[in-house]
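2.7 Reproducibility. Because tokenized structures are sensitive to small changes in the input, we list the exact sequence used for Glycine transporter domain-containing protein, including any N-terminal residues retained from the expression construct. No trimming or masking was applied before prediction.
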Amino acid sequence: MDTTIFQQAFADSQVLTVPWSIDYFSVIVGVLTGALFACDRKLDIIGTVVLGLLTGYGGGIIRDVLLQDHGVYFTSHPDLIVICIAICVFVFYFRGLFRHLDATVFFADALSVGLFALAGASKAFSLEQGFVLSIILGAITAVGGGAVRDICVGETPGIFQQSNFYAVAGLGGSFAFVMLAYAGCPLPIAGAACVFAVVFLRYWSVYFDWKTRNDADLTPHVARGLGKVKRVASGVFLHGGDATVALKERRRRSRWRRRDRED
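Resulting structure tokens (single pass, no recycling of outputs):
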């Protein structure tokens, strides 16, 4: 199926406009989590503000740079930048207020990831970027800010390490939105499904302790499988099979024993 024709059929008539309040909320929560992260790393006020802004805007900036010539969200809302700076300053000087709000901050963070995924995927879809790129840009918007934040403090980004679903949740939400959008589902419903998928995957991965793996070497399994295939093939085509392999092994051992006696 030609994706260009499919896009033109829906993208022109269906463009999801995220309410400014929800849009602002996602950025503010991202900035809040970034500022708290900076406080945990003992950064000063400048570091807290910069890290907060990078967390809240980083994914969107990467998305807009990749899209090219379609406007950068960061520069389009200067009033939001001022609000975010004020939040960073407040967190820096009153960080004690957030020590007992772990559950609330976690929920807000999961929700903001879902909203970021929605913002990235919906913008890419409306600009006719294709099925695959819309999913990728949605995921980048969802987790890009956190990755940039970790890099700035000299850490390997959490999305690249074994952890509960974070990038996976962003990908899942983006996929849900794009799939429903291409299927002709009303975009508000697709957007709600995107946010729900992200929050659902994030919470369930923590509740059941589902984690991405950091060691998944399939080489031994493939080698054993190929060995079995080789033995079966030799039995079918060379009339030898396992008996031939065993005979060769006995002969090889016999030669080694003779050499040992001679030595």
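The two ends are 72 Å apart (CA to CA).
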